[in-house]
Target: Protein kish
Amino acid sequence: MSAIFNFQSLLTVILLLICTCAYLRSLAPSLLDKNKTGVLGIFWKCARIGERKSPYVACCCIVMAFSILFA
Model:
């Protein structure tokens, strides 16, 4: 089943996207900062969410890991 139609998989993909963008921005800030608008601006926005809401994103990662492992 595609991740678009399975809600848990969709949440996992979004959470991984946020974490990946935040990690990439910490390594190379200029890579995402030059694309603040347009379609590639989605990655910049995900990086900002990952940076500003990092305790909540970390809790969501832990909850998602337990739900995947034990469900």
In short: The CA atoms of residues 14 and 46 lie 9 Å apart. Residues 7-27 form the longest helix (21 residues). The helical segments are 7-27, 29-33, 41-52, 54-70.
